[in-house]
Amino acid sequence: MKSFTLALPRWMPHRAGQHYDIRLTAEDGYRAQRSYSIASAPQREGEIDLTVELVENGEVSTFLHQSAVAGDRFEVRGPIGGYFVWEAAQGGPLLLVGGGSGVVPLMSMLRHRAAAKANVPARLLYSSRSYDDIIYRDELEGLAARGDGFELFHTLTRSQPAGWKGYARRIDDRMLGDVSRVFGAKAMTFICGPTALVENAANALTNLGLRPERIRTERFGPSGT
Amino acid sequence: MAIDMNWELMLDGNAVGGLLIEIFGQDLTALWSTCPDCGRQGELATLRAFTHAPGVVLRCPACDAVLLRIAKTTRGVRYDVRLVTKDGFPQASR
Ligand SMILES: Cc1cc2nc3c(=O)[nH]c(=O)nc-3n(C[C@H](O)[C@H](O)[C@H](O)COP(=O)(O)OP(=O)(O)OC[C@H]3O[C@@H](n4cnc5c(N)ncnc54)[C@H](O)[C@@H]3O)c2cc1C
Ligand SMILES: [Zn+2]
User: Fold this and answer.
1) Alpha carbon distances (Å) from A192 to A95, A106, A107, B26, B66
2) Lateral strand order in the sheet of B48-50
3) A102 and A11: one domain?
4) Residue A148 banded pLDDT, cuts 50, 70, 90
5) Left if phi > 0, otherwise alpha if psi is -120 to 50, otherwise beta: which for A11?
6) Cβ contacts from A onto B, under 8 A
7) A221 touches chain B (CB under 8 A)
8) Which alpha helices (H) appear in chain B, and where do they start and end?
9) pLDDT-based confidence at residue B79 (cuts at 50, 70, 90)
C-alpha cells in the first residue's frame, strides 16, 4: 500500500467518493491509464491524496509503487463521478462496506464527515486479508475513538493476530445483517471493492430489505488472489 | 455469450466516467436512463462495464442488453447509444 499526494496546478474541489484517471506515457509513446479514488477530504485545497494497492504484475500499480518518486509529474483527469459520492448535507445513516483498496473512496467520505464535524451515524464494515493489510488502520481507530457516531467493524479473511476480536471470514449475509440492522431500511449505503465482493454485498443488503435506490456501488475489478 | 462479457474483469459505469468526459465533455455517471429491452431504470454508473474487449461496452444489469458501445479508432471515436433518456444523449464534443 502506498499513498501519494498530488499537487494540482488547476485544483478543483471534489466530492467524497470521486476518482481521478491517471495516465502514464512511456518514452516510446505507449500509454496506460487507470482510475484511482481520491482518499483525502474535499475540505483540503490544492492537492489530493491517492492510495494505491500493489497488484501482482499490475502495470500501473507496480510503476507507482516501484518507480514513481516525489516530484514526478502525472497527466490526470478529474474529479470524476456524480453517483458514488456523499456529502455531509445528504445525511445518513451512512453504511459503508469496503474490501481492500475499496476503502479508499469510503475513507474520503469519513474524512469529509469528520472535517465537517457531522455526527451523522456511520458504520464501516471493512474486509482485509490480514491485520497488516488494513489500510488507514490507525486513522480509522482514531476516528472510531472520537465517539461522534462512527463505528468500525473489521473482518480479516486470511489470517488474524492472536486475540483478534473482529470478524474472521469473508463478508456474508449474517455479518451484513449484524452491522446494518440498527440503521434499518433507510441506510444510505456505499459498497466498494473487488467486483465479487460488491456484487455479493449489494445482493445481500437488498435481500435484507435495504432500499435498492439507497445502495450505491463501485467495482474496482478482480481481487487479484 | 458475447465475447466482451468477461465477468472476472467486469466493472461498472463509474469506471468509464473519465472516458465519457473525454468524448462528451460532461460527467454522465449520474445520468438516469431506461433499458429499451426490459425497462430497467438507473444511473449510468449502475450499468455493467466491460472494458477489456476492443472498445468499451455498457450493459443492462437486469437483462445484459448492450446499452452503450464505444470504439476508439485511428479515425476518431465511434459510439452507439441504445439507452433511453428523458432529454436525449449528448452529442460527442469532439
Ligand atoms: C473507479 C475506480 C477507482 C479505483 N480506485 C482505486 C484506488 O483508489 N486504489 C487502488 O489501488 N486501485 C483502484 N482502482 C483499481 C485500479 O484502477 C487498477 O485497476 C489497479 O491499480 C490495477 O492496475 P494495474 O495496471 O496495476 O494492473 P493491470 O496491469 O491492469 O492488471 C494486472 C493483473 O492484475 C489483475 N487486476 C486488475 N485489477 C486488479 C485489482 N484492482 N486488484 C487486483 N488485481 C487486479 C488483472 O486481472 C491482471 O491479471 C480503481 C478502479 C476503478 C474502476
Ligand atoms: Zn435491460
Assistant:
1) 11, 8, 11, 24, 24
2) B11-12, B48-50, B56-59, B66-73, B76-81
3) no
4) very high
5) beta
6) 58
7) yes
8) 17-24
9) very high
pLDDT score recorded for residue A224: 61
Q: pTM for this one?
A: 0.96
pLDDT exceeds 70 at position A123: yes
Rounded to the nearest angstrom, the distance between the alpha carbon of A214 and the centre of ligand 2 is: 20
Q: Cell numbers 445481500 label which residue?
A: A204
User: Mutation test of the interface with chain A: which of B8, B10, B14, B28, choosing the one with the most A Cβ atoms within 10 A?
Assistant: B14
Domain check: are A102 and A139 in the same one? yes
**Cis amide linkage into residue A42, ω under 30° from 0:** no
In the block, cell 467495482 appears at A219
Ligand 1 centroid – CA B44 distance (Å): 21
Whether the per-residue pLDDT at B28 is higher than 60: the answer is yes
Distance A90 CA to ligand 2 centre (A): 29
For residue A31, the enclosing domain spans 2-80
Residue A142 lies in a domain: yes
- The C-alpha cell at A7 is 499537487
Number of compact structural domains in chain A = 2
Ligand 1 environment, Cβ below 6 A: A 19, 34-37, 51-53, 55, 57-62, 101, 104, 218, 220-224; B 11, 14-15
Cell of A69: 518518486
CATH code of the domain in which A15 resides: 2.40.30.10
CB-count exposure of residue B93 (10 Å: 0-12, 13-18, 19+): exposed
- pLDDT interval class at B72 (50, 70, 90): confident
Nearest CA of chain B to the CA of A220: how many Å? Answer: 6
For residue A49, being part of any structural domain is answered with yes
